[in-house]
């Protein structure tokens, strides 16, 4: 298999594509010549109280300002629920499969409306108002989806947090966002491990102390065990919420009113909160998901992403529901309690569209073809991936073995900041190349910029940038517009820089080559190496550290940490301490695969740590270390290689 493998669009005679290649071409041309008209047409995918007449207003220059559909008003929960109550009242909107409890729950659009309204009333009773932030830290249960929608019904800004975050990280986010209320669960099972949601929240609130603005916490009971509740602050979700009225008049929002924030890692400093605006986000979610995952009657879309990621927002909740589809969530793992678990669920729930991360594909692949061949899987008609690069071998396995060559595979490239798919195929319309995220959807123009800052034409490699604004673009970083400008618009003035490198081939297909900054991607989770180094920098037992990403067969990348222990520290530090420190400050997902305590780090003569070298040493790729003459102490390299070999 080479990267020249091309699977023609016509290879899927049973896939009903939404348009012809000529129509796609015409759509691109229209978006190019009259972007405002194009996007105002796309805006009609969602329901507006007041239809917008303005498209984009703003600029990527100077202070950077972005606004879309600014004179329109809408409410996201109406786009996702009320808009479908006339024709899809009794259609299932949400299937929630509860692995731990061995049961599932299906909510129709009518049920969803009722649940969302009750919670909107309950939150209002607790004092939550338009513009207030509400933190949501829940496992994959229907209340997670209901909570997000209830916030939008009130106009509150939701901040969904990942259950894997440590109490410190949660505390930091609660303080930074100024959240007024929290919705959490008692606990969750992740395979055999317990994720202690309530305990983490209690600890986080304790740590945040006076700096927290949290007045109330709703707790979804996810097990029979008693949970300590703080009277006056904590409420049992169902005991409290279910008494409220099942109707709530949605609050009209201006298109530019913030809808949600999401913390994500960047190349510098602590995690930052990306802010998304209501109108642009909803149009973009409906458009991108409508172009790639076209909901048809009887379709069940299972996107396996946690709701705390952008994929969980757009591909689990807002995209499918805005398009009137059926979306499924599950707290299961792909290969637990036994290999093929997800395959069983595809058969049990007649999933038609499966959307997951390359890491999960590789994990299933490792269990072998026999596991797949034991199942039927004939319900599937479309497969998708996002979050990290997929190697052509895994792509082909997904396509040939899981999809039986009947289902197109959509590799979609996007980011928390882009809110929806930027690069990705319209399935059945475009030819596919295993390992390539195809090209930009109509209305989006991407560019590759070389090291001199110039845009490349034709086949080339470079920094992946986006030329013009798109409706789902994040508007700012919470309370830090300056960092927003610096992070995305300073590298190539006038363009949005994604942080990724890419190559464009002779057919105009894009191949993502990975991050160009110090962000690593572990099983689709973004982690800034600076975040890890900052944590270690605050510990007096460590002089200095460097965190790097190395290739990993299943997770894509793994974290490796080199640290110089302090000789004069009263207490010694060992490798386990370092792992624990990172897990407790950031989260379990950030725990390194290897830690090396070393006498020094390789540096240039000006003192800069040479990470390129550390990456090679950590991955055992010591044959081609390159020119070491610029190092201040070349002999150190041998010492470091010996450390790595010893622990291997
Ligand atoms: C949706 C999501 C964004 C970063 C992004 C890139 C990597 C995402 C990818 C991909 C190669 C794909 N990424 N999709 N790399 N191929 N199809 O993952 O958002 O968590 O913000 O991560 O993930 O490096 O810059 P987010």
Describe the protein in words:
The chain is an alpha/beta fold and 648 residues long. Helices cover 30% and strands 23% of the residues. It is built from 19 helices and 30 strands. The protein has an 8-stranded mixed β-sheet with strand order 12-11-8-6-7-14-15-23, sandwiched between helices. The chain has a 7-stranded mixed β-sheet with strand order 5-4-17-16-18-19-20, sandwiched between helices. Strands 21-22-24-25 form a 4-stranded antiparallel β-sheet. Strand 14 and strand 15 form a beta hairpin. The longest helix has 17 residues. The radius of gyration is 24 Å and the shape is globular. The protein starts with 20 loop residues before the first helix and ends with a helix.
What does this entry show, briefly?
By secondary structure, this protein is of the alpha/beta class.
Main sheet properties: 8 strands, mixed
Shape, please?
globular
In spatial order, strands of the major sheet run: 12-11-8-6-7-14-15-23
- Count the beta strands: 30
What's the mean pLDDT score?
94
The portion of residues assigned to helices is 25-40%
The total of helices stands at 19
Distance between the termini: 31 Å
SSE-based structural type: alpha/beta
């Amino acid at each position: 298999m080479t990267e020249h493998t091309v699977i023609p669009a016509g290879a899927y005679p049973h896939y009903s594509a939404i348009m012809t290649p000529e129509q796609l071409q015409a759509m691109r041309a229209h978006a190019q010549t009259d972007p405002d008209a194009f996007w105002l047409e796309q805006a009609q995918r969602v329901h507006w109280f007041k239809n917008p007449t303005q498209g984009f207003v703003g600029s990527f220059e100077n202070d950077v300002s972005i606004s879309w559909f600014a004179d329109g008003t809408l409410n996201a929960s109406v786009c996702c629920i009320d808009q479908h109550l006339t024709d899809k009242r009794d259609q299932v909107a949400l299937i929630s499969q509860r692995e731990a409890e061995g049961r599932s729950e299906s909510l129709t659009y009518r049920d969803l409306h009722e649940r969302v309204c009750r919670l909107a009333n309950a939150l209002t009773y607790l004092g939550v108002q338009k513009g207030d932030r509400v933190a949501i830290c829940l496992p994959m249960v229907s209340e997670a989806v209901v909570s997000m929608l209830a916030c939008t019904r009130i106009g509150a800004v939701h901040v969904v947090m990942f259950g894997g975050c440590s109490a410190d990280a949660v505390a930091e986010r609660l303080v930074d966002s100024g959240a007024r209320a929290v919705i959490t669960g008692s606990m969750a099972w992740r395979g055999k491990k317990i994720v202690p949601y309530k305990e983490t929240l209690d600890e986080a609130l304790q740590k945040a102390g006076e700096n927290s603005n949290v007045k109330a916490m709703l707790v979804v009971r996810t097990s029979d065990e008693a949970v300590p509740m703080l009277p006056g602050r904590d409420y049992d979700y169902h005991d409290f919420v279910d008494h409220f009225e099942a109707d709530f008049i949605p609050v009209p929002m201006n298109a530019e009113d913030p809808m949600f924030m999401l913390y994500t890692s960047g190349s510098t400093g602590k995690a930052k909160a990306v802010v998304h605006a209501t109108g642009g986000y909803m149009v973009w979610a409906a458009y991108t998901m409508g172009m790639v995952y076209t909901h048809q009657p009887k379709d069940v879309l299972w996107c396996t992403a946690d709701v705390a990621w952008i994929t969980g927002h757009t591909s689990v909740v807002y995209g499918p529901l805005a398009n009137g589809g059926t979306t499924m969530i599950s707290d299961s793992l792909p290969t637990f309690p036994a290999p093929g678990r997800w395959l069983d669920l595809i058969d049990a729930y007649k999933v038609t569209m499966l959307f997951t991360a390359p890491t999960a594909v590789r994990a299933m692949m490792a269990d072998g073809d026999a596991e797949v061949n034991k199942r039927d899987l004939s319900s599937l008609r479309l497969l998708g991936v996002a979050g990290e690069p997929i190697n052509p071998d895994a792509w082909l396995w997904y396509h040939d073995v899981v999809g039986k060559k009947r289902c197109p595979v959509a590799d979609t490239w996007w980011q928390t900041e882009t809110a929806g798919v930027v690069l990705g195929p319209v399935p059945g319309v475009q030819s596919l190349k295993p390992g390539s995220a195809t090209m930009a959807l109509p209305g989006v123009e991407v560019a590759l910029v070389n090291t001199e800052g110039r845009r490349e034409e034709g086949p080339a490699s470079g920094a992946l940038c986006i030329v013009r604004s798109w409706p789902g673009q994040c508007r700012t970083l919470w309370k830090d517009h300056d960092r927003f400008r610096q992070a995305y618009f300073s590298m190539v003035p006038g363009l949005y820089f994604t942080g990724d490198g890419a190559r464009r081939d002779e057919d105009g297909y894009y191949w993502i080559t990975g991050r160009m900054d110090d962000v690593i991607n572990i099983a689709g989770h973004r982690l800034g190496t600076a975040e890890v180094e900052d944590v270690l920098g605050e510990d007096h037992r460590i002089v200095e550290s460097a965190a790097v990403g190395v290739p990993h067969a299943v997770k894509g990348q793994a974290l490796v940490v080199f640290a110089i222990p302090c000789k004069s520290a009263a207490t010694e530090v060992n490798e386990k301490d370092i792992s624990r420190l990172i897990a407790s400050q950031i989260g379990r997902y950030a725990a390194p695969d290897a830690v090396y305590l070393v006498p020094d780090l390789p540096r240039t003569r000006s003192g800069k740590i040479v990470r390129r070298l550390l990456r090679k040493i950590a991955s055992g790729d010591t044959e081609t270390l390159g020119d070491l003459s610029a190092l201040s102490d070349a002999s150190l390299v041998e010492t470091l290689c010996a450390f790595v070999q010893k622990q291997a």
